[in-house]
Known about the structure:
Elements: H1 2-15, H2 24-35, E1 41-44, E2 51-55, E3 58-62, E4 69-73, E5 85-86, E6 91-92, H3 93-101, E7 115-119, E8 124-130, H4 135-144, E9 150-156, H5 162-173, H6 177-187, H7 200-211, E10 219-222, E11 227-229, H8 234-242
Parallel strand pairs: 8-9
Antiparallel strand pairs: 1-2, 2-3, 3-4, 5-6, 7-9, 8-10, 10-11
Helix pairs in contact: 5-6
Amino acid sequence: MLVKTLSAFLLSLLAIGCSANANEAEIRKAVEAKLGIKVESVTRSGYFGLYEIYADGNLFYTDDKVTAMLIGGDVIRSPHAMNLIDLKNNRNVTDERLRQLTAIKFSDLPLEQAIKQVKGDGKRVLATFEDPNCGYCKRLAKDLQKLENVTIYTFLLPILSEDSLKKSRQIWCSADRLKAWNDWILDGKTPGGRDNCDTTAITRNQEYARRLNITGTPTLFFADGERVPGAVPLNVLEQKLKQQK
């Protein structure tokens, strides 16, 4: 929604500007007035004299006169969006900043709404939001099984279809939720049994995901609160987990 709004206003912004010595407060005011959005932060990007604007879970960039914008987009939800790249150090600045700005406190996760799996001593922790019909989730599941000494919290997040919701409810209503989840996600054994128990946890997962702008599965959260989208390879999982104290 925001990207479409920015595109519509882009040409008009080329002709309308602030004073040449605009500061962050003036830029915030101008962007909010022109785009009708609430700006969370305005920061010098350190590149090309541009200012970084963070609003509605998205990053984009403007000059001090707000005459044009570089739409960074949300790389978490739109990995092919335009981004600001530091070519000297081969760094995706937009990606790094969004990971920082969208990080959470792991302790704030509603872990009682997740399926808990403890492997080994369980000292390392990882949370995933997954749709049972998500192909990438099934790929991730195979690598998760190879991890040792980790506690995995799986939040059922049916977003793909009504069948996803039905399967999520059946898994949650199972006497052994972890077994029902692994039977399905690893072995393709369709969950059976009832789906009419108290499944408010799934509804709360959906509401929580909306608040965090989680629109794709799998989405992972590590102990430091960093959000990582997609089926992360095993070596990356191990690298991230090894950083946990």
